[in-house]
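C-alpha cells for chain A. Residues wanted.
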C-alpha cells in the first residue's frame, strides 16, 4: 500500500505551492500572490527606463558622475548587483520626484524630506536611555551652515565601514607591493572629503557626528604613515588663506580646480622631487556648472570657480580642457616643455580626477588615465593592461571610499588581476 502511494505521487506533475488545490495542506496563496506582485513591480521598474529611451527621453546626471551603463550578462553575479543601480540611474523623472517631495515636505510640515542613503547608524547624540533599537537613516545630503551641503556618504562610510581599517591598510600595502615588485614606481594620493577639509560648516549636531569624527581622526593618523599615501590636507587648507575661500564649493561633494592643481603638483613632485619648482599657475577663466548635491534633496544649485593656467617652465601655459570621460583608458600627451614629467605614467582615479585632467595633461608629457569604477567587471585586467605600458603607477582614491572599507579597486580579485598582468610585464 505504501508502494502504491509512492507510485501515485510520482505521477503528479510538479506544481508551485500557490497553484496547488485549495484543499491541499501545502496550499499558500498569499505567498504566490506576493511573488507575482513583486515580479510585476520589478518589470515596471526595469522597463520604465527602456520605454523612456524609446520615446526619446533621456535621464540627466544627478550625482555628478557618469550614469551606470547596462550591465553585461557575461559579468556573472555582478550583472544582478549592478542592475538595480542602472534602473535607478535611468529613471527619467527622478529629479522631478525629488523636487516635488521636497516642496511638499517643506511647505506642509516645515522640514526637509527624509532622503536617506539607505543605511543607518544609531544616533550617538541621543542620551543612552533614548537610543532607538533600530538604525536611524543618514540623509543623502546633509544641510549645513551658510547654505553648505555635505555628502551623506561621508558619514555612512565612517560609521558603517564594511571592514576594519586594518584590512583597508593591508589592501593598500598589497597594492603598493604589486606595483613595486613589477619594477614600477608607485604613488598613492588620497583626496580628502569636504567634511574633512571644511568641517566648520557642518551642522552643530547631526546623526553620526561622534563616530564620524573619531573615524576621521584615526584614518589620518594611521593611513598616510602606514601606506606612504600623499596627504594633501595642509596644501588644501593653504588655498583658503591664498584665495579667501575653501578649495571645495559649498554645494558640491568634490573639490574645485585648486584641489586638482594640488593633486597634480603632489604627484609630479612624488615622481621627480623638485620638478614643480618652476611651475607657475594663475586663474584664467571662470566656470559655472550645476552642483551635484542639491538634486539629492530635490533642489537645484550652481557651483562656480576658475580654470587655472599651468606653466611647467614658468612661461609656457600648457593647460587645456580635455575630454573628461575616462571610463576607458584615456591617453594624454601634453606639450613637451621643460618642467614636465617625462616618465610614462598610468593613473587610476575616481571622480576627483575629473578636474585634474586639465592639469595632468599640462604637467605630464605621457600619461594614461582610467576611472577604476568598473575594474571588477574583468577582475582588473583592463587596468593592468593599461598600467603595463607605464613606468609609474599613480592611484587617486577619495577618502570616503577608503573609510567605507569597500573601495572596489582594493577587492582581492581585482588586486590579483592587476598583479597577474604586471608580473607578466615587468618594467626593467
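Reply:
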Amino acid at each position: 500500500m505504501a508502494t502504491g502511494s509512492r507510485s501515485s505521487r510520482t505521477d503528479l506533475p510538479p506544481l508551485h505551492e500557490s497553484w496547488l488545490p485549495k484543499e491541499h495542506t501545502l496550499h499558500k496563496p498569499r505567498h504566490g500572490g506576493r511573488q507575482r506582485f513583486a515580479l510585476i513591480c520589478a518589470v515596471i521598474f526595469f522597463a520604465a527606463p527602456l520605454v523612456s529611451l524609446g520615446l526619446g527621453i533621456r535621464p540627466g546626471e544627478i550625482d555628478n558622475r557618469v550614469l551606470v551603463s547596462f550591465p553585461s550578462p557575461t559579468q556573472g553575479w555582478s550583472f544582478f548587483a549592478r542592475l538595480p543601480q542602472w534602473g535607478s540611474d535611468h529613471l527619467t523623472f527622478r529629479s522631478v520626484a525629488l523636487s516635488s517631495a521636497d516642496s511638499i515636505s517643506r511647505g506642509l510640515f516645515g522640514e526637509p524630506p527624509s532622503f536617506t542613503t539607505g543605511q543607518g547608524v544609531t544616533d550617538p547624540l541621543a542620551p543612552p536611555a533614548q537610543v532607538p533599537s533600530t538604525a536611524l537613516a543618514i540623509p543623502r545630503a546633509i544641510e549645513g551652515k551658510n547654505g553648505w551641503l555635505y555628502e551623506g556618504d561621508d558619514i555612512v562610510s565612517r560609521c558603517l565601514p564594511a571592514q576594519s581599517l586594518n584590512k583597508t591598510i593591508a589592501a593598500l600595502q598589497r597594492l603598493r607591493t604589486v606595483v613595486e615588485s613589477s619594477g614600477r614606481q608607485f604613488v598613492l594620493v588620497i583626496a580628502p572629503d569636504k567634511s574633512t577639509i571644511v568641517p566648520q560648516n557642518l551642522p552643530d549636531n547631526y546623526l553620526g557626528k561622534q563616530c564620524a569624527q573619531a573615524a576621521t581622526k584615526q584614518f589620518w593618523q594611521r593611513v598616510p604613515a602606514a601606506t606612504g599615501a600623499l596627504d594633501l590636507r595642509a596644501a588644501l587648507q593653504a588655498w583658503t588663506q591664498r584665495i579667501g575661500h575653501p578649495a571645495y564649493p559649498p554645494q558640491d561633494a568634490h573639490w574645485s580646480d585648486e584641489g586638482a592643481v594640488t593633486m597634480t603638483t603632489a604627484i609630479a613632485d612624488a615622481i621627480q622631487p623638485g620638478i614643480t619648482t618652476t611651475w607657475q599657475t594663475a586663474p584664467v577663466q571662470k566656470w559655472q556648472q550645476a552642483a551635484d548635491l542639491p538634486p539629492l534633496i530635490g533642489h537645484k544649485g550652481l557651483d562656480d570657480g576658475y580654470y587655472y593656467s599651468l606653466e611647467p617652465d614658468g612661461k609656457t601655459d600648457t593647460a587645456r580642457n580635455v575630454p573628461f570621460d575616462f571610463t576607458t583608458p584615456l591617453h594624454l600627451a601634453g606639450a613637451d616643455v621643460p618642467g614636465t614629467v617625462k616618465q610614462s605614467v598610468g593613473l587610476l582615479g575616481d571622480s576627483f580626477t575629473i578636474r585634474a585632467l586639465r592639469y595632468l595633461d599640462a604637467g605630464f608629457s605621457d600619461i594614461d588615465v582610467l576611472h577604476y569604477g568598473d575594474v571588477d567587471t574583468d577582475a582588473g585586467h583592463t587596468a593592468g593592461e593599461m598600467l603595463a605600458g607605464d613606468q609609474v603607477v599613480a592611484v587617486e582614491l577619495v577618502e570616503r571610499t577608503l573609510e567605507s572599507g569597500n573601495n572596489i579597486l582594493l577587492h582581492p580579485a581585482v588586486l590579483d588581476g592587476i598583479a597577474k598582468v604586471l608580473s607578466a610585464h615587468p618594467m626593467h
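The CA atoms of residues 380 and 414 lie 5 Å apart. Residues 1-10, 60-65, 101-110, 120-136 have pLDDT under 50 and may be disordered.
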